[in-house]
Design goal:
The structure holds two protein chains of two kinds. Chain A is mainly α. Chain A has twelve helices and no strands. Chain A folds into two domains: 89 residues, no CATH class; 208 residues, MetI-like fold. Chain B is of the alpha/beta class. Chain B has a domain of 77 residues. The longest helix of chain B is centred in the middle third of the chain and has 18 residues. Classes of the chains: A mainly alpha, B alpha/beta.
């Protein structure tokens, strides 16, 4: 098993290199630069000399391949460069922002699992029942509602009207500030998870081995406990993993909406400023998170399903 | 045991497919009895209602299939209308079942030992520890080599024949009175088939377990059964002792089935002759013909057959046939 995990981790290396290359290429060809964005901010006139000076200062006057060489060389030393804007090391900036984002994503995932998983299960146990219909209508709505709108509604109801929770901000990092963003971010994955769980359980329930289990004379409770859950989990975990990964990315909208000081808002702000090192670094870290989660999912597969070989 | 009464008595069983708009008959007027320790065969083409009849015996019919009328008495107790709780006590414990597909009939993510052990936990109140120990014994009884190691194996690590042995071990774990074997050897190689049949026969006769053997393979039936029922399109068209069926088939369908069997050495006696088939196809459930359901494919059919369902005609050898023109 340990060898299997190590191999999966090693397989991440080429992916990371390919992704860094892609990110670098994209940001070498997008129009605009830190210089022009600073000037657009009103910090200087449209002065070619000033632009040239800034470009030289940030090393943007050097040829692309030299910059890429530097970038990779620094990356190998876990150095993501220095922010054009704040002159802080990018790793430091990201370090400050990654925990709020992770916290938000984990909290949202907990919401999704705690509600979506049991709902999907119960819906599948009684297909066509009222609970099933309500769950599925709810799931479709949950998937279709845009996050920013849902977030605004939540703010209006829980913060403005009822005054139960703060409407935005990180506060002291406590639970009260986390509730609304986590709920907003969690609704989509929760809906998808309910649907996937329902489908997975229904699929398992229709298999031959469930018929065998019934012919053994077991109650529905034992049937689910002994035979359905583990088989359905194989299917559910895929969705969970993918959702968790994409949630790190989707958090951008929710973070912006709730002024949450996470990686997403850092990314958006830096894109606006053409603060390329920060943008590159943030994306790379998000990609890394995604890869790590995928690896964890693969390992979980191997743990749950003995048919998947570790060799 | 209940003395002279039969172990299982099925009377006029009728099973329908029921939807909001339609009701189609799948099985009709099926009656048979199985004595303690007897092996009874149920033969017919795919889709003739054999498996559905078998599932009805252990109360595992699922919507849209429903038992509309008739009775199923097991050890003098009516199973129809029995609460699910009571049925569960019988299932696996007194009436066990083996299915056709050993490849998919076992849970792929659970070790086989545990799947056998479940039976002891469910029906004998054993602890998991005791149950696992008994599972090793059960594996040994179906002649699986190295049972102590094999209990930890997963189904995908075993061959089809081995998996069917596991199924037999599960089914016979609680020493049931009746074993329903739904095409237990259809998915297996011929050599493995013979081994599995031999094993079933030995174990069941040693334990006094009666068997309802469902098959489309007349060879299997001839080897295993005392009495046999021939099903066609949901009707039991002929029921006889097995030698009588092979010696003098009475229903035209039975006759057709036997004629379509290839025989060793027949070319030497009759010359090079094409194997005989039954013309036509089995009608679909939604379009069963009126009268005798075999009538559109029958060479003996008359006008009467198209309008009236034939009653049972006793044949004097403890068997009966449903045909106006039997013989």
């Amino acid at each position: 098993m340990l060898r299997f995990i190590l191999r999966r981790l090693l397989q991440m290396v080429p992916t990371v290199i390919a992704v860094s290359l892609l990110i670098f290429i994209i940001f070498s060809v997008v129009p605009g630069s830190i210089a022009s964005s600073m000037i657009a901010d009103g910090r200087g006139a449209n002065d070619p000399e000033l632009i040239e000076r800034l470009n030289r200062e940030f090393g943007l006057d050097r040829p692309v391949h030299v910059r890429f060489g530097d970038y990779i060389w620094n990356l190998a030393q876990f150095d993501l460069g220095t922010s054009f804007r704040t002159r802080q090391p990018v790793t430091e900036l990201i370090g400050e922002r990654i925990w709020p984002t992770l916290k938000l994503a984990i909290a949202a995932m907990c919401v999704a699992i705690a509600i979506g998983l049991p709902l999907g299960f119960f819906a599948a146990m009684r297909p066509g029942s009222l609970l099933d219909s309500i769950t599925m209508v709810g799931a479709v709505s949950g998937l279709s509602v845009p996050q920013f709108w849902l977030g605004l509604l939540a703010m209006y109801l829980f913060a403005l009207t009822l005054g139960w929770l703060p409407s935005f901000g990180y506060g002291e990092g406590g639970l009260r500030n986390l509730v609304l963003p986590a709920l907003t971010l969690g609704v989509g994955p929760m809906a998808l998870l309910a649907r996937t769980t329902r489908a997975a359980v229904l699929e398992v329930m229709s298999t031959d081995f469930i018929r065998t289990a019934r012919s053994k004379g077991m109650s529905s409770f034992r049937l689910v406990k002994w035979h359905v859950t583990r088989n359905a989990l194989v299917l559910i975990i895929t969705t969970l993993g993918l959702q968790f990964g994409s949630m790190m990315g989707q958090a951008v909208v929710v973070e912006k909406l709730f002024s949450w000081p996470g990686l997403g808002s850092l990314l958006i702000d830096s894109v606006g400023l053409r603060d390329i090192p920060v943008v590159q670094g943030s994306i790379l870290v998000l990609v890394l998170c995604f890869l790590v989660i995928n690896t964890v999912v693969d390992v979980l597969y191997a743990v749950i399903d003995p048919r998947i070989s570790h060799g | 045991m209940s003395g002279t009464r039969a172990l299982l008595e099925v009377q006029d069983l009728q099973i329908d497919i029921v939807s909001a708009k339609h009701r189609h008959n799948v099985v009709e007027n099926v009656s048979f009895t199985i004595d303690h320790g007897e092996t009874f065969g149920l033969v017919g083409e795919s889709g003739c209602g054999k498996s559905i009849t078998a599932l009805a015996m252990i109360g595992l019919l699922r919507s849209p299939l429903v038992i509309s009328s008739g009775s199923i008495r097991f050890r003098d107790r009516e199973l129809r209308g029995l609460p699910e709780r009571e049925l569960r006590k019988l299932r696996g414990n007194r009436i066990a079942m083996i299915f056709q597909e050993p490849m998919t009939a076992l849970n792929p993510v659970s070790p086989v030992g545990r799947q056998i052990a479940e039976m002891f936990v469910l029906h004998q109140g054993a602890t998991w520890h005791e149950a696992e120990r008994k599972a090793v014994e059960a594996l040994a009884s179906v002649q699986v080599p190295a049972p102590e190691q094999r209990v930890k194996s997963y189904p995908h690590e075993m061959s089809g024949g081995m998996r069917q042995r596991i199924m037999i071990a599960i089914a016979l774990a609680c020493k049931p009175d009746l074993l329903i074997a739904d095409e237990p050897t259809t998915a297996l190689d011929v050599t493995v088939q013979a081994e599995i049949l031999k094993l079933m026969k030995e174990l069941c006769s040693a334990r006094g377990t009666a068997v309802l053997m469902i098959s489309h393979d007349l060879g299997v039936i001839a080897k295993m059964c005392r009495n046999v029922g021939i099903m066609y399109a949901g009707h039991l068209v002929e029921q006889r002792p097995v030698e009588a069926i092979f010696r003098s088939p009475s229903h035209p369908y039975t006759n057709g089935l036997l004629n379509s069997l290839p025989r060793l050495g027949s070319r030497g006696i009759h010359g090079r002759k094409r194997l005989q088939e039954i013309t036509g196809v089995v009608p679909s459930i939604s379009a069963f013909p009126a009268g005798c359901r075999f009538q559109p494919r029958c060479e003996r059919a008359s006008a009467l057959c198209a309008t009236t369902q034939p009653d049972q005609a006793d044949l004097g050898d403890e068997g009966y046939v449903r045909c106006f023109h039997h013989g």
